[in-house]
Description:
The chain is an alpha/beta fold. It has 2 domains: 7-141 and 281-335, 4-Layer Sandwich (Metallo-beta-lactamase, Chain A); 147-277, Rossmann fold (3-Layer(aba) Sandwich), CATH 3.40.50. It has helices at 55-61, 147-163, 177-187, 203-211, 265-269, 285-295, 307-316; strands at 7-9, 12-15, 20-22, 30-32, 47-51, 67-70, 76-78, 81-87, 95-101, 104-108, 130-135, 167-171, 196-198, 220-221, 234-237, 253-258, 275-277, 299-305, 320-323. The strands form 3 sheets. The chain has a 7-stranded mixed sheet, covered by helices on one side. The longest helix is centred in the middle third of the chain and has 17 residues, at 147-163. It is globular.
Amino acid sequence: xxxxxxxxxxxxxxxxxxRFHIDPWRPVACAVITHAHADHARAxxxxxxxxxxxxxxxxxxxxxxxxxxxxxxxxxxxxxxRVSLHPAGHVLGAAQVRIEYRGEVxxxxxxxxxxxxxxxxxxxxxxxxxxxxxxxxxxxxxxxxAPAEVVxxxxxxxxxxxxxxxxxxxxxxxxxxxxxxxxxxARARAxxxxxxxxxxxxxxxxxxxxxxxxxxxxxxxxxxxxAADVPRALVLAPPSAAGSPWMRRFGDFASGFAxxxxxxxxxxxxxGIERGFALSDHxxxxxxxxxxxxxxxxxxxxxxxxSSAVVRWLREHGHDAAALATEFAAEGEPExxxxxGAA
Length: 343
């Protein structure tokens, strides 16, 4: 009888034969981390294991933590369990966790996307007997346009705002989304409108990306913008900055938000954001189904997001599927909506 290589424990997803947790939400002895977003990489564990590409960002997020790293694809043995980390395509250093024990292979996806991203390694399909997948956008309505088209829309919005003398305030997430947008704007040669600036919360993360070898364009600290440059600038800001006193320095600004939630009309209308751009770092519905098919898994376990909808669809189509009630944020750290008036 096949052993469960991943099961729920009070601290989170646990591999019993290997005696380690994956993205635990309580402190544990050994935490294998899929990526450095706050709901997946939490402080307090004795030791952490992540891929090499995650090291710089994890040291920003978990200062002083004992962090071991592996190159993508390099295996390690722990109590007879073969563990390796493989690109998930979500953000810099994001990894799927492949676990092999006594001929059984399980894969835990973490958060992932299949679209190309110049700031991280591309998603790698893996074969497995059982697949543990996220389902943040696990509904048929979520079908992403080509990211390059969305970035062209951002560039056009920026140009129109600059022509009208309005700062372009684009809310996005400090880790992952901000760096992806900056790199894609540079690749699209769309940085000739004015300066690209960022909230101070992004500075250490931008530095970590550069230290990891990611090519980012020059990004000005938003508070250092010259007065004459403010109306032409595109400012990347975390959702927590919406409605804060920090915003007053920019005078008249146009507000935008880059998130997968902008795919829906309700998402675009929420909280007074003028313009929404459906750019997500998570897999969409077709990509989710394609990934499950690519694994060849006979068993699928579905975590945070639209897990009940995904499980229902899978069962209706002949799959052995069940939901795992994890404590990861349903949106993942980088997909929550900003709240007007938030500090």
